[in-house]
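Please check this.
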Amino acid sequence: MTTPKASLNLTTTPETVTWPETHYVYIEKTGPFQNTAPQAWEELQKVIPQICEHNQVTAYTSLYKVGPQIYRAGVGIAAEPKNLPAGLQYTKFPGGKYARFTLTGPYSNLPEASGRVFAMVKDQKLPVRDDFNIENYVNDPRTTPASDLVTQILIAVR
């Protein structure tokens, strides 16, 4: 007998939001996200203390494009970066209009949640634009129980 999988705690009606222009420092990987996302985050986590020595981190986010399979694990910072460790890239991300879905629960639910979000975007005929989508990690996994983690999944819309 198999135990049914718990349902995702995922919003089904998106909220339209404007993501602000953001100073963004990141590690970029290309290829299947199930491989590149963990690698990028592992590398970034190692240099977070060095980033924080000279920069104020304001957000932990990933930016990604599904078509070309580009994944960026990164942090928003308060101003243009100073003294970044080797291997990091910087961009002033322009932000823009997004459809925001919210997942509450462990990061291990993100692949399934993202798949559902893309299905809902298609079903709801949202006017997507060719830009990076965003995962915004709202709370700190070091101090928040996995069941209470909040991730905003933001899809670029017109």
Summary: The chain has one domain: 9-156. Residues 14 and 108 are 21 Å apart (CA to CA). The chain is about 25% helix and 35% strand. The longest strand covers residues 22-30.
